[in-house]
Amino acid sequence: MLSVNTNSGALTALQYLNSTNSQMQTTENAVSSGLKVSSAKDNGAVYAIAQNMRGNVAAYSSVTDSLNRGISVVDTATSAAQSISDLLIQMKANALSASDTSLDSTSRASLASDFQALSDQITTIVKNATFNGVNLVDGTHTAGISALASASDQSQTISVADQDLTVSTLAVGTAYSTATTAATMVATVSAAITTVNTALSALSSGSKKFSIQADFVSKLSDTLTTGIGNLVDDDMSKESALLTSLQTKQQLGIQALSIANSAPSTILSLFR
């Protein structure tokens, strides 16, 4: 039936065209964002799950920052302990030379001066072994250093104890004056070397603990990030093919609507 009041063909064509335009908008949003679920309107359940996982990833980022700060603090202390150990080895050789009874007093005094300079260098190293306000080798930070180990339980931490490597604790702050005191100092420095190397081992183990946990947290965060991608990322090759198809349907829909809109004009021919 031909009617000038109702054009059912045009209405049908318009419905299909509107549907195609709506699908195109969805597809264009997916192409521009790269996401099949970019908001709660796309899929509320999946979006909520992804948001929870994003929160976990952000929390693990904070854990990683805490662990990295801990690593830096411990590595600073480790470097200081290594330098102190090297200096003590020099001081032991120095004291051993000075313990030689055949050595004249002038030479022994010169060795004692060098010994004192090395001792002062240890003091300088200890004072400067600070990172982020924490010094693990000067005997002041008795609580050691702790870092977060879990994003879900703040009570889970990894700790490394402090190590007092000051010259007063090592008993090498004052040089010898005679062959006898120099010989005694050899034993004292030997004990100090043992103390420092024990501390060095503890600090190295602590740094390794931090590093292992940081690697684990990084891998866990990467796994969660991949999981989020699996939930919300779109298949761009699929969307590209779909967009081409919808563009073709849109053009055909426009042509169909144009044809349907021109149908009532044929009524005029009946009155000629």
Distance between the termini: 19 Å
Helix run count: 6
**What can be said about the biggest beta sheet?**
2 strands, antiparallel
Tell me which CATH architecture of the largest domain applies here: Up-down Bundle
Count the domains: 2
As a whole number of angstroms, the C-alpha radius of gyration is 39 Å
Which CATH class of the largest domain is shown?
Answer: Mainly Alpha
Secondary structure: helix percent? 55-70%
Amount of beta strand:
under 5%
Secondary structure category:
mainly alpha
User: Which strands sit side by side, in order, in the main sheet?
Assistant: 1-2
> What name does CATH use for the topology of the largest domain?
f41 fragment of flagellin, N-terminal domain
Mind telling me the CATH superfamily name of the largest domain? f41 fragment of flagellin, N-terminal domain
Task: Give me the strand/helix succession.
Answer: HHHEEEEHHH
Low-confidence stretches: none
User: Shape from CA axes?
Assistant: rod-shaped
- What's the average pLDDT? 89
Extended strand count? 4
Provide a compact summary of the structure.
With 272 residues, the chain is mainly alpha-helical. It has helices at 8-33, 44-98, 105-128, 167-170, 179-232, 236-262, and strands spanning 130-131, 134-135, 145-148, 157-160.
